[in-house]
Amino acid sequence: MTETFKPRDEADLVAALAWASETGQPVEIRAGGSKRSIGRPVRAERVLDLSGFAGVTLYEPEELVLSAKAATPIAEIHALLAASGQELAFEPIDYGPLLGAAPGAGTIGGALAANLAGPRRIKAGAARDHFLGVKAVSGRGEAFKSGGRVMKNVTGYDLAKGLAGSWGTLAAMTEVTVKVMPRAETEQSLVLAGLSDADASRAMSAALGSPFEISAAAHIPAASLGNLALPAGLDAGNSLTVLRIEGFAPSVESRIAATRGLLAGIGAGAALDEGASRALWADIRDVRCFAGGDLPVWRISTAPTDGPRFVAALAARADIRAAYDWGGGLIWLEVAGADGSGAGTAGADLVRAALAPFGGHATLVRASEEVRAHVPVFQPQSPELALLSRRYKASFDPKAILNRGRMYEGCEPRCRPISPPSSAPIRRSPRPRRSCANASIAVSAPRPARPSSSLATSSTARAAASTSSRTCWRRAGRRRRRSPAISIAA
Fold first, then answer.
1. By CB neighbour count within 10 A (0-12 exposed, 13-18 middle, 19+ buried), where does 31 fall?
2. Strands (E), 286-341
3. What is the pLDDT of residue 385?
4. Kindly report the CA angle at 319 between 316 and 321, in degrees rounded to 5?
5. What local confidence, expressed as pLDDT, does residue 79 receive?
6. Model confidence at 309: pLDDT above 50
7. Closest CA to 191 of 279, 90, 306
8. Averaged pLDDT of the chain
């Protein structure tokens, strides 16, 4: 039976994680729970419910910064920002429809912990690029704070970037600070119908390489259009290649016309107005084309120009449906059947074997708990990267009590801090003196070339160097007089 503990404040959370660390009891970190079925099943009988850490704590529209408790619903943040004409530029995906849950249940902390980013990723960057600061409690039961409320700060290590994409396996976040951006005045989308995957890749690459500031580019083959609410005038029997342009109305109109002319040799394009464009891109962002089903869904990240070739290679061996985002660099795959892969693997071997020649990452986003327990959900790491991950994990959570087993199987036994063998003692150098360099080194070092210009500056530099040299020699002489038994050779 699962035991749930709901901390009232940070002190309760510190006490709970300190106890868990001391006793070695693993815990599951949960708030909205909208992404709980992503990753391997967490091996823990105790749940830390962080849903009480909700609410916006600071919002300064003029400074483009917002701070909120980690369990604050993203829907609430969207509404607050929209009232001031602003938005989260990284456009986080809502996994609810894809995973069979209610939409709008995601939290800001969950979006950052998963490093979620939607179609605007190609222009605005990932969630981590907008993550300014964090307050959290590590697996040691220690509260810490990192970052600040500005992009440039000198508050130490940028731990917020390390927590992004960790899926709650390093620390339990209690408060986050993010950068917000002004929302575009309007937007339109240029839609090219009936293109093949290869032609769509060429069209998206040409548009993204143009000076017309495309903010999103996606291609939905005809077989994947079933669940999308298409605007009037678009035929569900043809594939759709969609390019989004945002900004001021006159600029948007001009860039739509210029992009249509640029791609005239590939296909004729039709423009969608603001309302139709926003609705279509919301469906593309949330992968509505595969919502409502229970077939395995993979999230593939690879080079945009390699996407069509990877899909073609996989389609020769498996029954799949695909959808392209990020100009072709992000591919969503629904796998209906795979030759020789076994019913309980979601086609994992075939997917990763087909991806290997092109390079990239494959993440199993939707599958049954039984499948996720036996298949590597996240892309297997190279030995070097795995070692780095274990060291990083050991710094935050040495006993692997946080979301144990969610990302990689078998991490917890190897998450102990790595210490040097007893046969190789650590040699510590004597603490350097702050006075000056060794006199013999100073004498043998070559004099730097004097610059030919700025005579006044050169004279000042020579005078300062001469004074510094005399001071060093005097200090060295005093040390030799006080310690006559010490020779220069020592």
1. buried
2. 297-301, 318-325, 330-338
3. 92
4. 105
5. 97
6. yes
7. 279
8. 85
